[in-house]
Amino acid sequence: MKKVGTIKLHSKRLVLRALKNDDLDLYCIYHYLDNDTRVNKYMRPIHSGIGSNSKLYLQLVTSRYEEPYFFTWGITLKESDIVIGTLEIYNVNKQAKQGEIGFRLAYEFWNHGYMSEALARVLEFAFKEVGFAMIIVHVNAKNIAAQKVASKQGFVHIHTYEEIQTNTNTSQILKYELSKHTWLERLINND
Questions:
Q1: Per-residue DSSP letters for 61-128?
Q2: Is 15 in a helix, a strand, or coil?
Q3: Mean pLDDT along residues 176-191
Q4: Please, are residues 172 and 159 in contact by the beta-carbon 8 Å criterion?
Q5: In which band, very low, low, confident or very high, does the pLDDT at 71 lie, cut at 50, 70 and 90?
Q6: Domains of the chain
Q7: At 170, is the secondary structure helix, strand, or coil?
Q8: What is the b/e burial string over 27-62, where b = at least 16 CB atoms within 10 angstroms of the residue's CB?
Q9: What are the phi and psi torsion angles at 24 (to 5°)?
Q10: Could you report the per-residue pLDDT of 93-149, keeping only the tens digit for each?
Q11: Does residue 89 surpass a pLDDT of 90?
């Protein structure tokens, strides 16, 4: 795998860029993502602890951008520099050439195809430029929108498991996978 790290990516309507530890990004992350229960309703517990502290989240993310296998983007519209979502590849396993992907989008921007567009661009980057062989996504079974985004990009549901959400609650989590081979086949067949 190539040591690329988070680089600026462009799609038809979006710019995916490194987050900045400044007031504007802090405001966007805090108001549009971290403090909107609609956005965080299905966030997995491994992410929710840090996600509730926007300032700490930005400090941790921005301090890691020099790492060659750290991938976290702020999603912005081309016409503005306002962060409307985040997308990341984490739990990178260099030997297996795989990683897990997570994403969230501000409620006001749902149902416009932005997350599908951002995910498509990041998958292209991951498979073609970095050299990933497999990308995995874990989705809460109740999060139908995230399931649709994953399926639209070719992810295949592998299995379902229970995950502890709180001391008293569990949730069903769907594990999806997308191999580079499947991604390339879809790319060839869609052209």
A1: HHHTTTSTT-EEEEEEETT---EEEEEEEEEEETTTTEEEEEEEE-GGGTTSSHHHHHHHHHHHIIII
A2: strand
A3: 91
A4: no
A5: very high
A6: 9-190 (3.40.630.30)
A7: strand
A8: ebbbebbbeeeebeebbeeeeeeebeebeebbeebb
A9: -65, -50
A10: 999 999 999 999 999 999 999 999 999 999 999 999 999 999 999 999 999 999 999
A11: yes
65: number of Cβ within 10 Å: 15
Half-sphere CA count of 80, side-chain side, radius 13 A:
9
Chain centre distance of CA 46:
14
> Are 126 and 135 in contact, with CB atoms under 8 Å apart?
yes
The whole-number average pLDDT for the span 24-28 is 74
Q: Is this model's pTM higher than 0.85 or not? A: yes
Backbone angles phi, psi at 22, to 5 degrees: -130, 175
